[in-house]
Amino acid sequence: MDYKFLDEIHTERLILRPFRLDDSQEVANLCNNKKIYDMTLNLPYPYTYEDGYEWIKYLYTSFDLDRSVNFAITDKEDRTLYGCVGAIISQVHKRAEIGYWLGEDYWNQGIMTEAVIYLIDFLFTKRNLHKVYGEHFVENEGSRKVMEKAGMVREGTFRDHILKNGSYKDLVINSIINVWEDKEEENE
Q: Is the pTM higher than 0.70?
Protein backbone atom coordinates (compact mmCIF):
# COMPACT_ATOMS: atom_id res chain seq x y z
CA MET A 1 0.00 0.00 0.00
CA ASP A 2 1.36 3.38 -0.96
CA TYR A 3 -0.12 6.79 -1.52
CA LYS A 4 1.76 8.26 -4.45
CA PHE A 5 -0.82 11.02 -4.90
CA LEU A 6 1.25 13.23 -2.58
CA ASP A 7 4.34 14.64 -4.28
CA GLU A 8 7.73 14.61 -2.62
CA ILE A 9 9.26 17.89 -1.49
CA HIS A 10 13.02 18.20 -1.96
CA THR A 11 14.89 20.63 0.30
CA GLU A 12 18.60 21.32 0.62
CA ARG A 13 19.23 18.25 2.80
CA LEU A 14 15.91 16.44 2.99
CA ILE A 15 13.17 14.69 1.11
CA LEU A 16 9.68 15.05 2.55
CA ARG A 17 7.70 12.13 1.18
CA PRO A 18 4.56 10.12 1.89
CA PHE A 19 4.91 7.41 4.52
CA ARG A 20 5.02 3.78 3.37
CA LEU A 21 3.89 0.75 5.34
CA ASP A 22 7.47 -0.49 5.37
CA ASP A 23 8.32 2.59 7.49
CA SER A 24 6.33 1.08 10.39
CA GLN A 25 9.26 -0.43 12.26
CA GLU A 26 11.45 2.65 11.93
CA VAL A 27 8.56 4.88 13.06
CA ALA A 28 8.21 2.63 16.12
CA ASN A 29 11.96 2.74 16.78
CA LEU A 30 12.00 6.54 16.64
CA CYS A 31 8.75 7.17 18.55
CA ASN A 32 9.33 4.66 21.34
CA ASN A 33 11.07 7.37 23.35
CA LYS A 34 9.78 8.87 26.60
CA LYS A 35 11.31 12.28 25.77
CA ILE A 36 9.31 12.47 22.54
CA TYR A 37 6.16 11.23 24.29
CA ASP A 38 6.54 13.88 26.99
CA MET A 39 6.59 16.71 24.41
CA THR A 40 3.83 15.52 22.05
CA LEU A 41 0.07 15.65 22.44
CA ASN A 42 -0.99 12.32 20.96
CA LEU A 43 1.84 9.81 20.58
CA PRO A 44 1.44 6.73 22.78
CA TYR A 45 4.21 5.34 24.97
CA PRO A 46 5.48 2.74 24.71
CA TYR A 47 5.20 2.96 20.93
CA THR A 48 5.07 -0.38 19.13
CA TYR A 49 5.39 -1.64 15.57
CA GLU A 50 1.59 -2.10 15.57
CA ASP A 51 1.14 1.57 16.53
CA GLY A 52 3.31 2.62 13.59
CA TYR A 53 1.61 0.24 11.18
CA GLU A 54 -1.91 1.28 12.20
CA TRP A 55 -1.01 4.98 12.05
CA ILE A 56 0.44 4.70 8.53
CA LYS A 57 -2.53 2.60 7.43
CA TYR A 58 -4.80 5.33 8.84
CA LEU A 59 -2.90 7.92 6.79
CA TYR A 60 -3.76 5.95 3.62
CA THR A 61 -7.40 5.29 4.37
CA SER A 62 -8.18 8.80 5.58
CA PHE A 63 -6.10 10.76 3.06
CA ASP A 64 -7.82 13.93 1.92
CA LEU A 65 -5.48 16.71 0.78
CA ASP A 66 -8.09 19.27 1.78
CA ARG A 67 -8.02 18.03 5.39
CA SER A 68 -4.51 16.86 6.27
CA VAL A 69 -1.06 16.06 5.02
CA ASN A 70 1.79 14.10 6.64
CA PHE A 71 5.30 13.77 5.30
CA ALA A 72 8.07 11.41 6.34
CA ILE A 73 11.25 13.47 6.85
CA THR A 74 14.14 11.60 5.22
CA ASP A 75 17.77 12.23 4.39
CA LYS A 76 18.25 13.31 0.78
CA GLU A 77 21.28 11.06 0.26
CA ASP A 78 20.65 7.79 2.09
CA ARG A 79 16.88 8.14 2.71
CA THR A 80 17.22 7.61 6.48
CA LEU A 81 13.88 8.29 8.18
CA TYR A 82 14.23 11.12 10.71
CA GLY A 83 10.65 11.92 11.70
CA CYS A 84 7.35 13.41 10.57
CA VAL A 85 5.97 16.84 9.71
CA GLY A 86 2.33 17.37 8.92
CA ALA A 87 -0.71 19.60 9.11
CA ILE A 88 -4.41 19.46 9.81
CA ILE A 89 -6.08 21.75 7.29
CA SER A 90 -9.25 23.80 7.64
CA GLN A 91 -10.37 24.88 4.18
CA VAL A 92 -13.30 26.80 5.68
CA HIS A 93 -10.93 29.06 7.61
CA LYS A 94 -7.99 28.82 5.13
CA ARG A 95 -5.60 27.75 7.90
CA ALA A 96 -3.61 24.74 9.04
CA GLU A 97 -2.24 23.49 12.33
CA ILE A 98 1.19 21.95 11.96
CA GLY A 99 2.61 19.14 14.06
CA TYR A 100 5.82 17.19 14.02
CA TRP A 101 8.14 14.80 15.77
CA LEU A 102 11.79 13.93 15.24
CA GLY A 103 13.91 11.01 16.40
CA GLU A 104 16.11 12.05 19.32
CA ASP A 105 19.36 11.22 17.46
CA TYR A 106 18.49 13.99 14.97
CA TRP A 107 17.69 16.82 17.39
CA ASN A 108 19.60 20.13 17.26
CA GLN A 109 20.74 19.71 13.65
CA GLY A 110 18.29 22.09 11.96
CA ILE A 111 16.39 19.19 10.38
CA MET A 112 13.00 20.05 11.79
CA THR A 113 13.37 23.76 11.09
CA GLU A 114 14.14 22.98 7.44
CA ALA A 115 11.16 20.61 7.21
CA VAL A 116 8.76 23.08 8.84
CA ILE A 117 9.87 25.94 6.57
CA TYR A 118 9.14 23.81 3.50
CA LEU A 119 5.84 22.57 4.89
CA ILE A 120 4.71 26.14 5.51
CA ASP A 121 5.70 27.05 1.95
CA PHE A 122 3.73 24.03 0.66
CA LEU A 123 0.66 25.05 2.66
CA PHE A 124 0.82 28.64 1.43
CA THR A 125 1.69 28.01 -2.22
CA LYS A 126 0.09 24.64 -3.02
CA ARG A 127 -2.89 24.70 -0.65
CA ASN A 128 -3.46 28.48 -0.81
CA LEU A 129 -3.90 28.92 2.93
CA HIS A 130 -3.93 32.21 4.80
CA LYS A 131 -2.51 31.14 8.18
CA VAL A 132 -0.38 28.35 9.62
CA TYR A 133 -0.16 27.83 13.35
CA GLY A 134 1.39 25.40 15.77
CA GLU A 135 1.29 24.62 19.46
CA HIS A 136 3.91 23.42 21.90
CA PHE A 137 4.20 22.84 25.61
CA VAL A 138 5.66 25.88 27.33
CA GLU A 139 8.72 23.87 28.45
CA ASN A 140 9.47 22.58 24.93
CA GLU A 141 12.28 24.98 24.00
CA GLY A 142 13.24 22.94 20.95
CA SER A 143 9.81 23.33 19.40
CA ARG A 144 9.70 27.03 20.30
CA LYS A 145 12.99 27.56 18.46
CA VAL A 146 11.81 25.60 15.39
CA MET A 147 8.68 27.71 15.08
CA GLU A 148 10.56 30.95 15.67
CA LYS A 149 13.22 30.10 13.05
CA ALA A 150 10.43 29.21 10.61
CA GLY A 151 9.06 32.76 10.94
CA MET A 152 6.21 32.02 13.32
CA VAL A 153 5.40 34.46 16.12
CA ARG A 154 3.97 33.75 19.53
CA GLU A 155 0.28 34.55 19.80
CA GLY A 156 -0.28 33.54 23.40
CA THR A 157 -0.53 30.79 25.98
CA PHE A 158 -3.45 28.59 26.90
CA ARG A 159 -3.04 28.01 30.63
CA ASP A 160 -3.64 24.49 31.98
CA HIS A 161 -4.92 23.54 28.53
CA ILE A 162 -3.70 19.93 28.22
CA LEU A 163 -3.99 17.11 30.74
CA LYS A 164 -0.90 14.94 30.32
CA ASN A 165 0.35 12.33 32.75
CA GLY A 166 -2.07 13.53 35.40
CA SER A 167 -0.93 17.18 35.28
CA TYR A 168 -2.25 20.20 33.43
CA LYS A 169 0.18 21.81 31.01
CA ASP A 170 0.33 25.23 29.41
CA LEU A 171 0.22 25.29 25.61
CA VAL A 172 1.87 28.07 23.58
CA ILE A 173 0.39 29.05 20.20
CA ASN A 174 2.57 30.41 17.38
CA SER A 175 1.54 31.41 13.87
CA ILE A 176 2.54 32.86 10.54
CA ILE A 177 0.34 34.67 8.03
CA ASN A 178 0.69 34.26 4.27
CA VAL A 179 1.89 37.77 3.37
CA TRP A 180 2.20 36.83 -0.32
CA GLU A 181 -1.51 36.09 -0.47
CA ASP A 182 -2.33 39.66 0.59
CA LYS A 183 0.08 41.14 -1.99
CA GLU A 184 -1.39 39.02 -4.80
CA GLU A 185 -4.92 40.18 -3.93
CA GLU A 186 -3.75 43.85 -3.97
CA ASN A 187 -2.27 43.40 -7.46
CA GLU A 188 -5.47 41.95 -8.94
A: yes
